[in-house]
Every structure is written in structure tokens, then in C-alpha cells.
Amino acid sequence: MSKISAMNKRTTQTLAENISKQVEHFSKKEVECLIREFNVLMAEQNNSGRAVHGLDRGKFISTLHSIFGLTDDRMTGRVFRTFDKDNDSVVSMKEWIDGLSVFLRGTLDEKIKYCFTVYDLNGDNAISREEMLHMLKGRLIRQPNEEDPDEGIKDLVEIILKKMDYDHDGKLSFEDFEKAVKDENLLLEAFGTCLPDFRVICNEKYCVKSPFYPLSVNVDF
Amino acid sequence: MGISLTRAAQWTMVSSSTAKLVSTPMNESLLKEILHFVEHFRSQYPQEAEHVFEEPLQWSTTLVASDFKTDYDISDSDVQSHERDSEGHPLLQLSPPTVYVRSFSQLSKLLHLAHDKKLAEVRACLEGKFESNLHPKQSNHQHSSITHRLNLFVLLVTLYSHPIMLNPKAVKNEVEILQVFCGGGDKGLLKSLRYTSDFEFSNGYRAPLWRQVQGDICYLVIEPCDTETLHITCSTAGIFLNGGIKQEGEENGYEQTSDTYEDLVTLLKSRSPHFAEKINQVEDLIVCLIKKSEAGLLYFRKTSAGALPGEPFSESSTESEEEEEQPYRHPETNTDLPSEYWQIQKLVKYLKDGDQIVTVHTLCAMMDFNLMQESCQMAIQDTGALKVLLNLLDTDEHKCEIGSLKILRTISHNSQIRRVIVDMRGVQSIVKILDSPVKELKALAAETIANVAKFRRARRNVRLYGGINKLVSLLDCLPNLASLTPSQEEDIEVACCGALALWSCSRSTKNKKAIRKAGGIPLLGRLLKSPLQKMLIPVVGTLQECASEESYRTDIQTLGMIKDLVRNLSSDNDELQMHCASAIFKCAEDKQTRDLVRKYKGLQPLVSLLHKADNKQLLAAATGAIWKCSISQENVTKFQEYKALEILVSLLTDQPEEVLVNVVGALGEFAQIPANKAAIREFGGIKPLVKLLTSPNQALLVNVTKAVGACATNKDNMVIIDQLDGIRLVWSLLKNPSADVQSSAAWALCACTENAEDAGETARSLIGGFQLIVKLLSSTNNEVLASICAAICKIAKDEENLAILTDFGVVPSLAKLTNTTDDRLRHHLADAIAQCCMWGSNRASFGEAGAVAPLVRYLKSKEGSVQRSTAMALYQLSRNPNNCITMHEKEVVQPLIHMMGSDDEELQEAAAGCVRSIRLLYMANRNAELFTFRN
């Protein structure tokens, strides 16, 4: 038994060494912690006998919910898709750690890229009017006297386009988005919360659970 | 005229962008009155007419270039006046059809040129656009500014045009206007003003009929803020004080007890220094109003009458510069508001209804408006957005908080919004954010506080909600590391904003104390080492603001900040230099600080700041620092090396008063060194100094008299001063209501009298001069008394003068003062008594007035100068036998014998002489007794 755990430990170390070379912002030691954490999550996951090599959508979203306080359904689904780079419907260990590096330590540029991917629903490298409309729908309390429930939102989308659509092509390209966010950092999560609140990172149980977990976090505010 | 007429002016709105004066008989007569006033303004009030407006009056004129004659540059259709302001801009400029006029003098000249079109021009001027760049397309503003402009003219007319023959209407108007400014504690012009009778006859008179025959119109009871209640008669012949008519019907009290004045304001000016000072401010304010249309007359009333009577705030001297709270102003109609207004209103709706994401978008969209523009600020306030913005601060959603603060920090430049923020308890929320772990939020909150805390209620709130401690803790950073991590850089940014906020807050005395208590001074001292100007300016600004407190001055010195202040004197930023200089100005009251400034080579940079003569604030601070530093003679010697004296003398002319006060103060210190007295003369400084003796500014007069006094000890200087009639000017300053000026003038008088050729005769030629001196002996201020005694001592050296002084009762007046315990006064009093003994029966009179016994007590004083002067006085007095008896009874011999053993020969001699007189009397007495016995 001790032999197995020792062997496990060695594999983890080698794995950590490999991943930490490929992923930014984390040291080998930190990656080791993350791997252990990942394994705990995997163990919690009800695999019902199937052999899986990553977190499925349900487990991932509930993890986002419980650990990072991300509760917006429209967004968590997109976050899963963004984490799941190879589109195989599970988030592998590598994908998990990769994603967390942006989540926890990402630079502004990395975060812009990440958020843009989340918001680009159809992956055409642009956020269209319709996509915005979809993401913003229901965020405005409807006044009883208004006929079209989405009128306010439509109007808001125009206001947003006026501000962010620098090349006036009626949609937000990555360049538009990047420029707008650099101009005003508040627009980073323009269409929905998809990054953890920094206070969650600093204080929540995620840190408590793994005592070696790095506490220092890059925050853009 | 006055308020009633303002109400009568009838305006109409013809189109959305212009307002017109309706053509009614009332308005016509009003226009004529204004025309008449403006036309004659130049000749009646030449000084006021030259005052340059900040913003020009502009309107479409019917005049063309050819109407203008000499005194104007004419090129094609454009015209510019030869007269220019200090920056070289013409005071009148015509580029058809618009004309810009920047002084009353030019306005009246223009009207003169307009001949028969005068009335039309006045009308156009009143209707003309006012500060058009600030209120585009906003008719309600336009409207208010026109009425406002009209008010101004009317006010000026009332203040300046006084009928020579009084009538009930004129009196009533003046009373009405003054009543507006009554009350409000020290800020008001007067405590109260009322008629003795509420009943008004149909002819407008209030005096009883039998007095009306004498010309009496009404009686007033006025309580000024600083002197006793005045009972005033207004009659057709003028205004004067009466014997005290409290109620109608009393028979006595109608007699005139003062000179006759042509109007109430003049009388009050002469009776109440407080009133005189305030009314001057009011007049200044009117000029300010010409450039500031906002909130109109109400602002004016508030500031002069005191917006917050009796509020228990303790504020520092700098308070006077700050804004007063203004009344709310709301647009009267919603028509013709700019499109921004509606756009913002729409955004506010989303702000109220949206979730966090929508809110952030709305806030960002709002930031894109020009929030410095008043229409946008008004929109935010009117639509209730301000409330939402403040609520967002309590949400804990830091993105919303950041967005909200970004807007608040900008719109809080508007004084009205600042007030609303405070009213809505916004300060509390903003202060709470200072605890946030997000550095950007802290910085934004501090920056917003810096803007909001421009008035005292806000500052008080910051303190009460614990903001000072939090702001001070923001200062904790390492400002002068060679390389910084991004996080350290953020800390510095936060510290900068914290310093900015503290700077605003430090205007209140209690906040200064709170900053100190929170340990702010060492932190400020550490930040002072920063190389960043944006950091240094608020830090030094705070320090210089706080240096009005003694404790800060000590700390600034002991914590080694003088060195850094001196270093930054050589910065390339004028504002920073100014704050450093003014911090040194305030701290250099202390000798050690003065020495430190010299040690760190701060004197040379101070002198070189004198070359920046264009920046008056900087100049005032630099000259102030030089003044205080020159109190140390070693510094004066250093200053000499840098040729400071010559530059200072050149600054005696054409400078604002705040510079002059300091320059003259410095010259007063420089002139303590004999060589400099001659140098001041050689550089031509005597004449401008003497000229400044006629200034109305009391702080300046104190310094001028001191400087003139110091210069007068040089014979050659004295000749010039005498030629310029300086003695008379100094003497007449004894009439000044300020005790500081009185004493300073009296000291100067000593020097002048001692050194002038025929001072005795000059003194006699001044009518009422001696009376004045004797009258001042009843002052309650010891410094005044001491200086007057010293002056009497010098003047009485001339026997004829002494005779006159005696006639005016100098002896009993001096005798009355003898009970004082102030050593400085005792010294000069004893000198004066000794000198006054030299005439007639004055020795006996002093004895009769009971001056001898108290003088004997002076001998117990530890002060050498008092002992000596007293011994001399006693010696003089002892030549009267009765005085000897009194002295003997009061046991004078013992201390005198002790003084005979002194090293001071004069004292020895005086003491011995006195004892001898007593002894001689005793001997004579004994001989007489023996003689009687024998017989």
C-alpha cells in the first residue's frame, strides 16, 4: 500500500514537472498541489464505472459554483467550453491547470483573450449584436408599461457598440474588445461574470483545503 | 432703486436662445437710470472703473469702427482699445457685430461714443450673452444670468450713487439693503438694524411730526458687531448720531452728537471697523460676481451675511479663501435642455433597473460624457443618478464601486454636487471604501474625498467617520526606492491620492489635529523624500496648510523636513516651489528653523524665486519666507550676498498687497542693520515706503510703519521721510482702529521724532495730534500703551510740546496707568513720567494723582530696564517734598540703597539722587523742628 502511494507520489512529481514547464505562472510545487486537488475532484466525481480522463461538465460547473462563486448559468457553460480546449466534453488535468493559470494569475492580456473566447459564442472571432443580446437578456428589470421586453437591452447593445466598436462594423472584433478593455478595465467582464472574484481566491475554502496553495494572486483592480 | 426695482424689471422670452427686456415704462426708466449711472461711473469712481472683469461683457452692438476715435486701434472693421490689462489684452475689442468690454471705464467711454444710440446699447448689453461658453443653448441659464446682470447694475448703483439731499425713499432703500446683511454673527455686516418706529407716514417719514419740521426722516437703532449700539438720526440734511432715541416720543436725545454723514454706509464705516472691512469685501464680491454668474445674488448674500450663523466650527485662517455653501438651484423648465441631458436620463434608467453587468456598461457610457460640463452634472443630479451612484458604493461590487467613484470624482468638482453628496451621507460611504483591499478603489475614494472636502461640513464629516485615520494610513508606502514592483507603484499612487485628500481636509483646524494624532506627520515627512512632483505637491501643500499650527512647525523642524523643503525650492514646478516657500514662511517664525534654512542653503533659492515676478502667489510665498528668515541677522548678511535688498526694494511698487506686506516686512528686518538703512535709501526705497503709509491694509501698515521707523534712525533717511511728509502720515496712523497699527505707528513715531531736525515744530503743526496721543493712553492694549508712552517720552523732550501735552491732561492719564504689572509698559511708563516731570507743577500733579506709590513697587521688578527707568522717575518726582513723604512711607529707601550698589552708573546716580532728596527733606524738617523747639 505504502509502495503504491510512494509510486503515486513519484508520478505526481514527474507530471508536475512536465506541466509546470508548459504552463505559465505556476511553480512545480504549486502544480503539485493543483494536481492533488484535481485528483480529489476526480474522486468526488461519480464516474459510474466508466474510465474518464477529466472533469465532466456537471462536475466542472458545480466546482466553479462552489469554489469560485461563479453562478451565472449562461457563463459557466461557456467557461467549460473555453477550458475544454480539445472539445472532448471533459476538462483534463492539463486543461484544468491551464485554465486556472488564467483564472488565478492571468495577466490582463491573457484575461482579455480568455473573456473574449467566452463571449464569442459561435467561435467566429467576433461578438455580434445577437450574441450580446443573448448574453445581456434579462439583465434589465422590465418596466410593466414597456411593450417589447428587450427594447431596453437592444438600446443598451447600441450604446455598447457605440463605445466599443471602434471600426464601426457592427460587431466586436478581438481588436475592438482588447482596445476597449485596455481603455477601461471595467469592461473586461463586459457580458457576464466569467472570472472568479479575487476575494474568493484569497479567502475561500480553496485555500483552506490545500494549505500549500499559493495565496498571492494577480488582481487587476 | 434697489431691490424693488430689480423685481420690477420685466423680462420676456422671445425665442429659446435670447431673452428680451420688455418695453414698458418701468423698464425704460430703469434703463435710463443704469445708463446714467454707467456714464458717470468713470468720473465718480475712477478706481473702481479701472477694475478689469475676468469675463468680458459681450453683446451685439450697432456701433461700427468709424464711431471710434482716438484711444483705439482701428484696423478694417475691428477695433481695439489702447488701454490694456496686465496681460496685454485690450479692454475693449470690437469684431462686428460683437463687442467685448472688460472694464466700467471702457463701457462708459463706449456709451459716450454711442450718442443717441446709448439706450439701445445699454439694452443690448444687458441682453447680451453672458459666459456663453459655459451655457450653450441654455435659455434658462441665459435668463438667470441676465436678471443677474441687471441685479448687479442695480446693486452697484445703490452702493455707489448716493443722493446728496436725502429723502425718505433713499433712506428706506439703504436700510432695506443693509438689513439683508444683518445677523449671522461675525460674518454679517451688522448685528441688527431697526427703526425706532414701525409707523410710516404717507410721505415716507417715520419721525414724529414736530421733528419732521426739523427735517428728521426717521431714527434707527443699529447694533454693530464690534462697537456699542448706535442711535442714528436720518434727516434731510444727512445722517448723524443722536443722544439715544430708543422709542418714539421721548423728548430728550434728539440733539446731534456726531458729524453729519451723507449716507448710512459712510457713517457706519467710520464707527465700526468690522463694518468697514466687511463692506469692502462686499464691494469686492460684486466685482467677482461680474465674472461669476452662478447662483447670482443669493451667493452674494450668503457670503456676506453668513450662511451658517453661529456654527461651532473652528477653522484656520485659510478658510477665508474657500467656497461657501450655495443654495440649490434647479432648472425652472425642462424645455430646451441639451441632448446630453436626455441621454444621461436614459442611462440613469438602466442604472436603476440593470444588474451588475448592465450597471458597469451604463457607468462606462456615462463616463464618456463630458462630466465637467455643467449640463451633464445637472442631469446626473436631477435624475436621481447621484443617489444611485452613492448607493452603489455600499454594494460591495467593486466594479460598480470603481465606476461610480470614477464619475463621482469628476462631478464633485461642482460645488453644488459636493453639497448634495454630503447631504446624502455620501462621505460616510466613501470613507468606508478607504478600507477596501482593492488599491484602485482606495485611490479613487481618496481622490473623491479630495474634491468633496472643499467645504467645512464635508471635512467635518470625513473626520467624524474616521476618514482622517484611514487617509493617513494610505500614506504608508516607500516613495523613493530605485526600482519598484507594480504593487509598490500602486501603493505610491494610493499615497498620492491620500495626500491630495489630506490636503483638502487639512483646511480645518480639528482635522490638522486629527492628522497629527493619526501619526500623519512622520509619513508626510517620508513622502517628502519622493522624487515625484505629483506626490510632492499635495504633501507640501498639506504641510504648509498645517504649519499654521505650532505643533506642526516644531515637528517639521525636528523631523528634518526643512532640508527637503529647501531642496524642493529649486524644483522646476512653480506650484511646488510656492508651497515650499510658504511652508518655510510659516515655520521660520522659529529661530532654529531660520538657521536650518541657512544651513541647507535655502536662502539663495529663495532670492532667485524673486525673479518670477509674474507669478504673484509664488512671489508672495517667497517674499514671506525671506521676511521671516531675515529676522535672523546672520540670514540678512547672507541675503546681502545675493543682492536681495535691491530686488526687494524694486518690488515695492506695482505689487499686490499680499506681496507688499512681506516685502515691507523683510525690509523692516533688513533695516535693523545700519548699513542697510543707507542702502534702502540708495536703491530709492524710502519714497515708495512712505507712500505705502496711506494704504488701507492693516497688516501692511504694521510692517510699513516698522520699516519706516527702522529707516528713520538714519539721519539722511529722515530728511527724505520728512520731505515726503512722512511724520504726519505716521502720526495720522494713530487714528487707525487696529491696535497693532497704532502701536507700530507709535514706535515709528519715536524714531522719527528722535531723528528729525525740527520734530518739535512738526508735531505742533499737526492739528489734534497731541489730543490723539493723550486719548490713546486710555487704550486697553498694553502694547499700544507702551508704545505711546515711549512716544510721549520722545515728544516731551521738546519743552513746548510738553507744555501742550500737559494742557491736554497727560499727567493724570499716565498716573492712571501706574497700576499695571506689565514690565514692558512699566519701563516706558516710568520713562514717560520722568520726562513729563520736567514741566511746571507736573511733579506735584503726579503725586496728587497717586502715581508715586505704585512706582515704588516697580523697584521690586526683576527687569533691569524697569528698575532703571523707575529710579529715574522717582528721582525726578522726589524733587517735590510731598512725593518724598509718600516714597518714604512706602519704604523706598531700602531698595534704592541696594540699587546704589549696582554696576549701572545711571541707575546708581538716580537712586542716590532720590535718596538724597528724601534725606534733605528729613534734615530740613528736623532743623525746622529744632528751630521751633529752641524758640
Secondary structure elements and their pairing?
The complex is a heterodimer of chains A (221) and B (935).
Chain A: H1 2-22, H2 28-44, E1 54-56, H3 57-68, H4 73-83, E2 90-92, H5 93-105, H6 108-119, E3 126-127, H7 129-136, H8 151-164, E4 172-173, H9 174-183, H10 198-203, H11 205-209
Antiparallel strand pairs in A: 1-2, 3-4
Helix pairs in contact in A: 1-2, 4-6, 6-9, 7-8
Chain B: H1 3-8, E1 11-13, E2 19-21, H2 25-44, H3 46-49, E3 52-60, E4 72-75, E5 78-81, E6 92-95, E7 98-103, H4 104-113, H5 118-127, H6 139-160, H7 168-180, E8 190-195, H8 209-212, E9 216-224, E10 230-235, E11 238-241, H9 264-271, H10 273-291, H11 296-305, H12 339-353, H13 356-367, H14 374-382, H15 385-392, H16 398-411, H17 415-423, H18 426-433, H19 439-452, H20 456-464, H21 467-474, H22 486-505, H23 509-517, H24 520-527, H25 533-546, H26 550-558, H27 561-569, H28 574-587, H29 591-599, H30 603-609, H31 616-629, H32 633-641, H33 644-650, H34 657-670, H35 674-682, H36 686-692, H37 698-712, H38 715-723, H39 726-732, H40 739-755, H41 759-765, H42 769-776, H43 782-795, H44 799-807, H45 810-817, H46 823-836, H47 842-848, H48 852-858, H49 864-877, H50 881-889, H51 893-900, H52 905-934
Antiparallel strand pairs in B: 1-2, 3-7, 4-5, 5-6, 6-7, 8-9, 9-10, 10-11
Region (Disordered) (chain B): 309-336
ARM repeats (chain B): 643-685, 850-883
Pfam families (chain B): Arm
Please describe what this structure looks like.
- The complex is a heterodimer of chains A (221) and B (935).
- Chain A has 221 residues and is mainly alpha-helical.
- Chain A is built from eleven helices and four strands, in the order H-H-E-H-H-E-H-H-E-H-H-E-H-H-H.
- Chain A folds into two domains: 8-106 and 196-215, EF-hand (Recoverin, domain 1, Orthogonal Bundle); 109-187, EF-hand (Recoverin, domain 1, Orthogonal Bundle).
- Helices cover 58% and strands 5% of the residues of chain A.
- Residues 203-221 of chain A have low confidence and may be disordered.
- Chain B has 935 residues and is an alpha+beta fold.
- The chains are: A mainly alpha (221), B alpha+beta (935).
- The interface between A and B is medium-sized, with 25 and 27 residues.
